[in-house]
Structure formats: structure tokens, C-alpha cells
Predict the 3D structure of the following.
Amino acid sequence: MRAVHFCSACGKVQPPVPVDYFSFFGLPRKLNIDHGLLEREFYNLSRKLHPDLYAQADSQEQEWSLEQSSQLNDAYRTLKDPIKRTQYLLRLEGVELEEQSKTATEKARVTGEVKKQVVPPDLLEEVFDLNLQLEELRMNQKTGEDDPELTGELEARKAEFEQKYAGLFEELKGCWSQWDKLVDAGNEAGRATVRDKMVDLLNRRNYIRNLVRDVNEALGN
Amino acid sequence: MSERIVGIDLGTTNSLVAHMQGGAPVVIPGEDGLNLLPSVVALGRNDQIVVGNPARKYLIETPECAVYSIKRLMGRGIEDVQDELKLFPFHLAEDLRPEEVLGIKLGEKTFTPPEISAFILRQLKRNAERYFGSGITKAVITVPAYFNDAQRQATKDAGRIAGLEVLRLVNEPTAASLAYGLDKKQNGIVAVYDLGGGTFDISILKLHDGIFEVIATNGDTHLGGDDIDNLLITIALDDIRGDLGMDLRRNGEAVQAIRQAVIDAKVALSSQPSAKLDLGLPGGKRYQREITRGQFEQLVQPVINRTVGPCRQAMKDAGLKPEQIDEVVLVGGSTRIPKVRQLVQELFQRVPHTDLNPDEVVALGAAVQANILSGGSEATENMLLLDVTPLSLGIEVAGGVTDKIILRNSTIPASATQHYTTQVDGQANVAIHVLQGERELAKDCRSLARFDLKGIPPMAAGLPRIEVRFLIDANGILNVTAREQRSGKEAEISVQPSYGLTDNQVESMILDSFDYAEEDFRERQLIEARNEAETIRSALEKGRKNQAWQQLANDERKKIDKLEKALRTAQTEEDYQAIRKAIEGLNQATFRLAELMMDTAVASVLKGKTIDQAYLGEGPAAPRPAAKADSK
């Protein structure tokens, strides 16, 4: 169902109703989105809701327009980005994502405390090796020693991780299509499986992104 | 017709006011006929506030009573401005505390930066009122895109103090793109490079069927032509110390004279291979030096190179490579420097547009936006500006870390919701520290405000669920609301704006400002109307002695006498509109007299002239528009 944002007869802004971002655009909760269509719809709604159109209106209409257009912008910003869109949908499905604790991640990064983060089991060995190398590099940097071989290895590992990172995105795309089909088929049980898969992919992706960032920082990139 | 809204460019060096005339924006000139109003304010004799060109002489004669580049201090605290103080002769009030609004001394009086900006705005308002012959109370004011919340709020406060309802703050490069896009009407990606007197902005926009969507913006609110001037001044002062043995660094008067001389040289070097500095110094000595363009370019290179980082970051944020940018537009006086143009060309791999007057394009764009806000016209039909917030908005979380809740380059209005709870049983207050900036630690970000959520109903620790909503409006200014969700109670928020003025302070400044206003609009209108009445009556006096008077019918003469008497009565009263009506009546009645007074050969050409014009040419006192401003 699509939320009503403006009066179809007079074109004026209506009071905002609390709806999710998909409903705001009148879209089903699917993950493949036609970007051109979304952008056109965003522009069309902006032309109806933006505060510029209500600069001379009464304060009630101004307030509605401010609320409505901020919702519009928030919704568009979330839906146009595929990762944000997936995260948002998962949250609507009641999933608490790792990404949501980004505050904890940032804090751990700054304070140097170890953040409780589950290492994906298949990455365990690689991450262990990587951490040893990073440790070595930091030691070298402290003593002023230069080890081009180590740097080279780290660069190579980083490239590997970056490739994995890109691969995860491709996998995620596969999930979207599965999800969308299941939504069309009204298959609830199947959706739970895909949902859990997507949560796993996003967590890994997040984990690898942090690894790449750590390597970059250590290498002074 | 809805009320007229003007567009104002409140610049570091110059300020302008513009409006939409027919299908094109035009700058409204001042009484002196000039489009640019220097952003200089001085306190003259009898505590009279002087603004613009007349204020410039005070910079040299009584520098302690004058101030320029006040924009650099808007929304800033004492701890931010230490660098500026080394380079600019600001006379700050004593006993200023950190995170508090600054006080600037003009002679014995102290003003806040918004009040000083308000003097400039009031002058622009007066210029517009003279031009239109009617009151102006609404405006769109431009700000650097990279201005933070405190700087924006300070600008809005300045508008209020000047008696203007600020309908919108528009980012300067975005405004420029509106003026630019009005002519071009095309789709594509445009980069606006705006290097002004004191600020630098880069904005990248997507133009799509009248929608101007900002994709990314970046900048430096303390980078501009002023920095170049300061480099040249330092060299001159060193020269004078070395060659002439005079240390003028503490001599405000001499430094101002040098400043003017180096600015002239800088401007000359944009069109000439070399420029001469030649000025008299205290004690009868002269300082003379030639600067070649090569020397100048070498000197300014580090300053203009500081624009490269923001440009690259903006492109990165927009996800664009230089070759994907279709057009580059130059804005701001400093983009006249050939070296700047060369840098832009290399950076974007494209010859930048220079067909718009870089001093005026921002004001023209503000006028376009003002027209859109007033309901639009044929020229602005379908035009809509979608701007972004330049800096991320965050809150301080445990460990002094910034948690970003609205990221930079988010389209505004934008919002974010955060949930809070209590840490001890029965806790009634929660403190929230709002930050703006990209850095990870709270101490490296800009403190916007400290909010106290008060009156939380007594509950066990962790039970209350307080929802706080952060909303950035279309001006880029933050609004906060809070609600305790379990009790449904609207939580009370007390705001302590950092660096800003409270509402009460602004209100009292509005009252104070009347003390400094020359005379209000109504009073001025009255004076002008009375002057005009005098003019027409004295013209009539002469007309009665002309033989043409005898050619009029008796009735006609009686009618004129009656109307003149009515005008004389109106003149003694306080209603300027009644005087204007009486003038109009007398004008109508004396058309034939005016015609008869003319030589019959030219009478047909001069048809429709009024009696005072028949004698005196164009009436001098009428508040009619000056020559149409050049829209180039």
C-alpha cells in the first residue's frame, strides 16, 4: 500500500504518517529496485513536498512539508544504496545487525580494546596469520626497520580480501533475486533461510572491510 | 501580488542584494550607483553606524572604530579565532569565554558578529527599499556551503536583527548554479568552484529537468582572497623593516594602507604581467616595489593548492571522475586570478566557464531562489533546489567518541532518530552533546549544542525509552525533539547553543538595533514624499506666471488650486501615502498646463510629462529605480 503524501485534488502536502521507506515509495519489500524509476519518483515527490513550495504557506503546512520531505530524503538515501537497502529490509524483518553496533566498533577502534566480534570460521586461519603480520609490521615501524617483503605480502593479502569483498557483494545480489521470488510466491519459511544468509553475508562483508581498513592503516595508505 | 522577497549575498569582502525583474535576476545598486557594498562597518561621529564605501575611510583614520571581514567570526568562539587575530585587526572584547559568542569593539561599543552583519544587511535592505519605494521584510541569504550549524544560525540571527525574515539560507555555490542554470536549461553534472574573499566551496550538482540536486559539497570556511592579501602584507612589512628600518606591524593605520595597496596590486596582476606597490609611510618615507606575475604566482601557490583536497574529496564523495563532469563554473572574485583558473582547468580537465560575473552570480542566484520561494514565475517554473548538509552530524558516546547519525552530503531536510535510556534508578535527566564534523573523537568535532532531557518520569534504570529526533531543515540548521516513549511524555529539552545567541538575546538585539537605524522606512518615505510635494508645488508656482496659465479654462484653474491646497494640507500630516495620492491628483490635473507650457513642436514628444518634469527634467526626489543593473 502506498502512503498518501499530498492531496491529489489540490496538490497540497498532507500530514505525515509513520510508514516504512518501501511503503513511502509505494514499493513492495523487495531488494531489486529499478534505479531510474526510484529517482524519477524521488524527483516527482520532491516537486510536491519540498519546503520551498510552502515558504509562504501557514506554519502547519510548513511543518508537514518539512516532515514529509525529510522522510522522503531519508527513504531515498536508504533505498538507492543496495547495502543500506538490504540492511534496512533486514531490520524491518526484525534482525539486529552487526553493523548496528558500529558505535561499539568505532569505540573499540579508538580505545584499542578488543571488540567482541565473531570471526567467520572459514576466515579464522587467514585472520590469525594476518594479525601476526600486522603485529610484525607495527614492531618494525616502531624500530624503524623496513621489510619490503612483509609489506608486499600484506599488499597481496589486502588484494585477496578486496576480491573476497567484491565476491560477497555478488553473492548478496543472488540473494536479492531469491528473496524477491519468495516474496512473490508468498513463501514465508523460505524467506527466513535467505534472510539468515544475507545477515551472514553482511556480517562477513563488514568484517572484511574492517580488516582491509586495518591493513591500510598499518601500511599508512 | 505576494510580498517581494530579495536575494542577498552576505560576503566576506562585499555584499549585494538582487531581485528578479521580469525573467532575469538583477543586482540592486546602492545610492552611489554601485552594485557591490563593501562589507565594512564603522562607528562614526555621534555613534552613527556607517556601512560600505563611506566606512572604508575609517579603516585608515580610526581603525579601532571599524571592522571588515566579520564573516570570518560568525558562529565562532574565542578559541577558534586565535589564528585570525594574528592576521586581522579585530578588536575583541575582553573577558570572552570559550564556546561563547564573540564581542567586537567599535570604539567604546561592543557588538556581536551577527549584529555587525545586521548593519550590512540593513544597508542592503535600505537600498532595496529605496529602489522599490516600498518596504522589504523577507529575504533569502546565501552562506558558504561549508558553513556549520553555528555559522548558519548566526547568519539567520543577523537577518532577524536587521528586521528581515530569512525565508531560506542558500549555499553560495548552489545559488550560483541557479543563476547559471537559468540561462542554460540543460541536464548534466556541474561543478561549482567558489573562491571568495574568505571562504572556499566546491559543490557538484546534477541538473535534471529543472531539479538542481547537489550530490556532494566540500570546502574550507577560512580560505580566500584575504589569505593572499595577508601573504603580500607580510612581505611588504618585512621589506619595510629590512630596507627602511621601520617596524609597522603594530601600526594599524599603516597596515591598512598597505592592505589597500596590495589588494590593488593583486587585482592588477590578473590582467598585467607586473604591478607596482608605491605608498607613503609615516615620517615621509616611501615604500616602492614591483611584483611580477611570476613572483605572485609562486607566492600564492600554497594558498590555492589548499582548494585541491576539498575538490578531490567532493568528487570522491560524488562517486565521479573528472571526465564525468560536464561543466565547471567559477564563482568568487579570487577566481579572476589566472593561476586559479589554470588549477581548476587541470583539476577538472576542462576549461571553466567565466561568462558570469563572479562577484555577482551568487546574489543573482539568491534572487532566483527568492523567486522560487515566492511561488515562482515563468522563468523559474519547474526549478527546484535539493541541497545537502556539508558536514556529518553526530552525538558524543561513551569514551568521547563521535557517533555519526546523519552523514555529510545527505539531502536536506534529513532526519535521524536515536534512543536513550537512564543509567541509574529514578534518573530524571539525560545529557546529550551534539557534534558536527568528520573526525572520530568528539573533541575534534564542532560542538553544536548540549541538550538536557529533563523531566523523565521516575523509573528503574534502563527502563525509560527516550526517542530523540534530529532534523536538519532546508536551511541546514538542526532541530531536536524528544519523547519518552513509555510514558508518552514529551521530554523537555533545554538547549545551550555553543557559540550562538539565545532567542532572548536576539530579541533584545532587535530592540537595540533601532537605536542605530538612521530612520525607519515610514519616516524616510514621508521625507521623500514631502520633498516631492515641494517640487511639484514650486513648479506650479512658476507655471502660474507662465502665459499658459491664462490659456486654461477657469474651472481647470480652480480645480488645480483646490488640489494644490489638498496637497499642502497632506504635506503637514504624517501619512506618506496620502501625500503621494495628493501629488498624483495634482499631477493629473496639471498635465494640460505642462503641455501648454512646452513649445508646441515638442509637446507631442513630451506627452504625458508632469508639470515638474516640464520645468526640471526628471524629478530628482522620486524614489524610482536607478539604471537597470547589468545582469552579466
